[in-house]
Amino acid sequence: MLLRDEGVELSEAMLFGLGSGLSFIYWDSKGLGFPFPGGRVKPFELTRNLAGTLELELLVQETTSPKRAWENVAASIDAGRPVGLQLDSYYLEYFSSKVHFGGHVVAMYGYDDHNAYLVDTDQQGGAVSTTLISLAEARAARGPMTAKHRSFTVTAPRRLRSLAAQIVPAITACADAFLHPPIANLGHRGIAKAGKQVRRWLERTDDPQRVLPQAALLMEKAGTGGALFRNLYRDFLGECTQLLDSTELRTGHRLYGEAAALWTEVAGLIDTAGKSGDAQYLVKASSSLGDLARIECGAMQALSRLRA
After folding, report:
1. Could you tell me which residue ranges the Butirosin biosynthesis protein H N-terminal domain spans (predicted)?
2. Which domain holds residue 292?
3. Distances (CA, A) of 281 to 29, 33, 36, 268, 274
4. Which residue among 65, 93, 144, 216 is buried most deeply as judged by most CB within 10 Å?
């Protein structure tokens, strides 16, 4: 939304890929209560990556002061510039799923005495509003993935470089990070680890009928574009094949098509396991995650060999 206001029209999939956004993390800690499988890089890392790739001027403001935080946003809105906000979606009144997630990002384009006017995902209604009180709570939240009242604006150069010149370094950087993670719960190693751990998910909660379907929902529908962001990356690679003739690129596109379909199956198996209480569905999910680790590793190995 911020780029569109600057006259830059690129698909969400292209922005995701140019920001080297795809990743995987199996996050499990006492503070979480239940494992979190994530499919992308850290919330603001994608934005910074994309700004570097597209040579955008990215102005980021953070503060511990709620008053200063509001002044930062209001000044941009009053000047006619939409603002990106990172916040905890739990406090947004229009949000249909009440789950704490401090890495949520929205675009804000207006306000009045009572409400803030935002653009969120299609699932949450697109153009929406929430009270200024709830917005302040969402921005002030502390916990995993949260930021200190982070707001940001972007300014695009008068002329963007050709996409063909930018896609190769974005893809190879993403592939290298995925193939060589520093710890075992990231990248292809993280998917393999998730495959081993998912078998015990019914034992990890006292309320599997609620928690497992919620985990599946986060993987498939909660702003991921489907299949834990794999649909988005598949579509990005598909767009890239129209710009660059490459066997490695076509291989990566084909394999991420397979991976995307399999991630949707995994989410369905986890959902069914929670609703039925039958661990056999988690055994099947475990096997599929093992396949996914191999498929995605093969895709990223091919993409890492990509040359301009």
Report:
1. 2-121
2. 163-304
3. 24, 22, 18, 9, 9
4. 216
